[in-house]
Amino acid sequence: MIITFPISIWMCLKIIKEYERAVVFRLGRIQADKAKGPGLILVLPCIDVFVKVDLRTVTCNIPPQEILTRDSVTTQVDGVVYYRIYSAVSAVANVNDVHQATFLLAQTTLRNVLGTQTLSQILAGREEIAHSIQTLLDDATELWGIQVARVEIKDVRIPVQLQRSMAAEAEATREARARNESNSTKSFKSQHVVAAIRRNIEPYFFTGLILVLPCIDVFVKVDLRTVTCNIPPQEILTRDSVTTQVDGVVYYRIYSAVSAVANVNDVHQATFLLAQTTLRNVLGTQTLSQILAGREEIAHSIQTLLDDATELWGIQVARVEIKDVRIPVQLQRSMAAEAEATREARARVLAAEGEMNASKSLKSASMVLTESPIALQLRYLQTLTTVATEKNSTIVFPLPMNILEGIGGISYNNNKKLPNRA
Q1: Separation of alpha carbons 101 and 60, rounded Å
Q2: What residue ranges in 312-375 does DSSP mark as E strands?
Q3: What is the pLDDT of residues 96-151, one digit of tens each?
Q4: Residue 135 to residue 148: CA distance in whole angstroms
Q5: CA–CA separation, 110 vs 107, rounded Å?
Q6: What is the pTM of this model?
Q7: Residue 421: C-alpha distances to residues 408, 410, 418 (Å)
Q8: DSSP 3-state assignment of 392?
Q9: CA pair distance 185, 188, nearest whole angstrom
Q10: Per-residue b/e over 330-353, b at no fewer than 16 CB within 10 Å?
């Protein structure tokens, strides 16, 4: 009795972590109509049955769904849903498997919402569609004690033939621009804006030697160093219907270990998926020219969105870099032809402007020489001096015509020869 009593008491005591709650059923009825925890709770053997519920944010990855859009285009769309349980009692008592139910509901909601949109609306309005899916999911799962924090559309895949058609359309558009550039002289300027956001590190952590009580304390180590998250190439359809592959790098660190452990199930996996979807959403709203010319602005925009979205997880996004932008070979040729035509047009314009300026200078010089015959004579002598420098020519100096006046009775006034008669 002395030996079994402490063992029985220890078996009745259960430890609930900070991010967990326990729903206790006593004789089939939920005790006190609320969840217990965190800390130490008492469970009576053979009478009480308890269920642990994790309250951290869960990352639900939706596999590619084949969807027929409103304009009869077959596409494959996948996404990510971030949700958390805010009511442990509702999650246990109102649904059999809350995570499976949420996963299936996210799939069907994604299909239903995208099925009412055209392909152009899906490509141009990812953020609005994601917000609409989030609202519908949040309303539908409220009875289950679920709060949907965020919905992201990862990828929109279209048939290969349609990709070729859209690429041909973009190529034809660029060729038309190249033909028009040969007669135009437009120039465009871009401005670059760079900003930085910093957070202060909270004095929450301990370093050095710590004391952990066996069978009572459970500890989790959190690395606070900067993490390099390499985003693999993402196939993105830009706003001007060009299929590109873009990859990048995200540098982030955990500034709040408590938030990183207590608010999200897997902080690094959640950040990786969020970086992928944010990269796709931001680049999908830009044209190819904007992506190529404004990488710094786009990277800063992605950094700001990621920093705001991961603040609840204790993440600080320090930097985002776009590594490479790959475009189809045919489009590369069209862009090269467009650039060549633009440079040729500018060269012709510069040559025409030079000829025009030279003509104006000659006109001004001729007007000056016309008003001053002495200047014309000086210019004539200067030309002879320049020619005589080489010493390889024979120069004949003609006499000025006015010297011959009075000789032979000939007058050259008014450019007419008049005989001098007595």
Answers
A1: 11
A2: 315-326
A3: 999 999 999 999 999 899 988 888 888 888 889 999 999 999 999 999 999 999 99
A4: 8
A5: 5
A6: 0.61
A7: 11, 10, 9
A8: coil
A9: 10
A10: ebeebbebbeebbeebeeeeeeee
